[in-house]
Amino acid sequence: MIRWNISRRFMRVWERNLRVYRRTWAISFIPPLLEPVLYLLAFGVGLSALVGSVQYRGAQIHYVAFIAPALLSINIMYNAFFENTYASFVRMYYQKTFDAMLATPLSLEEVITGEIAWGTTKSLVATVLMQSVVSLFGLVDYPQGLLILPLAVLGGLAFGSLGMLFTAIVPHIEMFNLPIFLLISPMFLFSGTFFPLEVLPEWVKPLAWALPLTHLVELSRSLALGQWRMELIWHILYLTGMSAVLFPLALGRMRARLIR
Amino acid sequence: MVEPEGEPVVQALGLRKSFGHTKAVEEVSFEVRRGECFGLLGPNGAGKTSTIRMIYGFSPRSGGTLKVFGLDIEESWRLIRARLGVCQQENSLDPDLSVQENMEVFARYFDIPRPEARTRAAELLKFVGLEHRSGSPVSQLSGGMMRRLVLARSLINAPELLILDEPTTGLDPQSRHQVWERLESLKKSGISILLTTHYMEEASRLCDRVLIMDHGRILTQGPPSQLISRYVGKDVIEVSGPDEGIRRFVMEKGLDHEDLGHRLVIYTQEGRELFDRVSRELCAQGCLLRMATLEDVFLKLTGRELRE
To answer: What is the pTM (predicted TM-score) of this model?
Structure first.
């Protein structure tokens, strides 16, 4: 019964999470503000002395300008993915928050949609914060750089849905180590984040392009460098397709898990 | 049997629920009338929780028909839930929020406007005696306070029917009586109550009618007093360490009794006379006379073996 029942009421679930977030916003704000500074210090001062500049799309760019948009992308991925795995799992499994909601006029789909919408929001907020810091160093080209904000929403939706799918299928919370070890960590390193994909051996390149973060990095880097071009549509389509598949899949698996 | 009055708020007919091959609820039919308190009784695993979860549209039913407020639960689940208050068995309070915020956030799930939510929250916290704790984090509340908060939270939408799944399990006597008093005053205000419990004292005190179920099936249903006189009688005589003499006596007299080995329980209508005789002549290790209770009915019907 109650198949695909989504109304605007999912915003009530989103509001609940916002309310909790506002209690601890000062602490929640620190990582996205501080992290880029740490990275830029380590890589900008430390590593770029060794690396100097990298070859990207036929031009030499400073290494710090190369990795700054990647840090933004990783930030987008982390915020939605971790919110919709660990945090959502705690609410679902330990706090019985979903059970309580399901005794009110909220449908399961609205609860899960609200959770993913919240994960997406966290990606967006973290991006606003981190991008402000990165921009102070003159590492984002404007006005194109503003497009990174809607990109954070798209990326948040994609990675939030992915996280929620794992939340629906893992038997216990420690199991999240598996997708993190097998998927999130390799993406962090091999999605054109810290070195250009061109340096990879030919046979590895398709693997790298299969990873969603690669597409997010490509988009944010092009926008931060002010290099919008039509072929970027393909990367947008990749992330849109990913969301279009994983979002309903997460809803379906969550229904199978919770409705007994 | 006296017919219950009032229009039905819950009508269950041939209700069934299976989990794979396990049949949790089989052919359960009952009605909850407006303004009454109806109790679902049964040992652990009897199917009580499965039954009420179907009523508030959490679990899809495997068979039978189910109407709440005259509406079909499958089609009108949202409308029905808007008029229900549910206290689940497990603590589902939001530990990330304060007492007051728990109330306000829950009100928003029902689309209650914020100012109204605030007023109602304050009223209800006062009703359950938690107004002085409105700013406390939920984690600092005692078990009894948490249960009262769950009760207050379930009333935020001014429900017509309150569903309580074991509302006092694990509470100390003081907290239990607190909850009972609140439920009694709610009942007086005209709200219908459906509760599950395995405390017979609770059921006798609160419920107008009860349904006893086990292994997913109904064993009996009716007002507690009627069930007691139908299944047990008026009085109960308990004989400790019964000997052959008393055993022969109950057999010869054809008395309704249960022999538990170390104890013999006699169910009777004329307790005083029988007790005088038994205690004078046949009671070696002591015996007592007491009024028959719902617990006697329950144990008689569901047996005395341990569950789980």
So the answer is: 0.91
